[in-house]
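Annex B. Sample input.
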Amino acid sequence: VGVVDADLGLEGGDLRAAERTYQLLHQVAGRAGRAEKPGHVYLQSYQPENPVMTALLAGTRDAFFAAEIAMRERSKMPPFGRLAGLIIAGKSEAVLDGFCRDLARAAPRYEDVFVLGPAPAPLAMIRGQHRRRFLVKAPRNTNLQKLISEWLACVKIPSAVKLKVDIDPYSFF
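Annex B, continued. Sample output.
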């Protein structure tokens, strides 16, 4: 089995990228060989020192996942914290960016809540729509729905702009 650009899934800033990439490459490697006939796996990587690649090479699955969960706990990322994604889209980049500035100015200001953005969304343009993203990182006990509802009530959303809110997003696209 050969995998070209095996580390491509690690790009894009997705919280679960490492675990998804590990799982996919481990599954692909398991398909190499049949019965008593051993197989070979070749992974092309631009990041051979990445923990995903080193864990695959060493066969240290449990240690890899333990390190992932420890990193999430230290950084208060899910499941030890909460995230919300706001994707804002519009045909006019000027209108979109103006609204994003207004939204950033009205962002909640709490010591333990972090509003990151606006930044281009991972897929910055889809079907002629420019896209921006905000991420909200908060403690696990935070009522994100209420916090975001109160935040959005402070701004007027232009009719030319579409806004989607994803609480505890599974994917960041």
